[in-house]
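Exercise 7b. Backbone tokens:
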């Protein structure tokens, strides 16, 4: 993979996150977990390039995110769609996702676990974390029936500085 400046990224963030999805990978190269996500964004905040992602605190990956200062986002080619679905539906508490899929881990220049065959990898250094509360919403009833129930806690929002970006040359 080739390291680039975030501002050189040619891919559309709405396509990357909303349609291509991402694997959030957190932990160390020796002990990590990944999860599929399609909620988040890329942009600028506090005069820095940032990524923001939403993770429920009961997800196994949240433990790894909370224990480390940084994590990665890997955007996989379409041929990995079944692997992304598997990683979204299965917990790393119960299954070794690397053994159960065709995903291959790598370590970035920054020493973080990511996915070898990704089109784009972004290293994220946590800057702010907030747990969403019902009182944060203008009208919680607009989203609560579809996305939240008593068995599913509200998401934590992680705002991260993009510390490095990598692309695969096609």
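Sequence design result:
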């Amino acid at each position: 993979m080739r390291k680039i400046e975030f501002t050189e990224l040619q891919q559309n963030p709405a396509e990357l996150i909303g349609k291509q999805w991402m694997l959030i990978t957190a932990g160390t190269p020796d002990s990590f977990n990944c999860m599929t996500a399609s909620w988040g964004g890329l942009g600028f905040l506090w005069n820095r390039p940032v990524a923001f992602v939403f993770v429920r605190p009961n997800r196994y990956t949240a433990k790894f995110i909370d224990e480390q200062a940084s994590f990665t986002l890997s955007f996989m080619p379409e041929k990995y769609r079944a692997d992304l679905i598997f990683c979204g539906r299965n917990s790393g508490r119960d299954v070794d996702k690397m053994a159960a899929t065709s995903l291959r881990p790598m370590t970035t220049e920054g020493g973080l676990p990511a996915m070898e065959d990704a089109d784009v990898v972004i290293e994220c250094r946590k800057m702010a974390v907030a747990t969403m509360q019902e009182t944060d919403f203008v009208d919680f009833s607009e989203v609560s029936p579809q996305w939240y129930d008593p068995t599913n806690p509200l998401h934590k929002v992680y705002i991260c500085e993009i510390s490095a970006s990598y692309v695969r040359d096609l």
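Instructor comment: Helices lie at 13-20, 60-67, 81-89, 97-100, 144-147. The longest helix spans residues 81-89.
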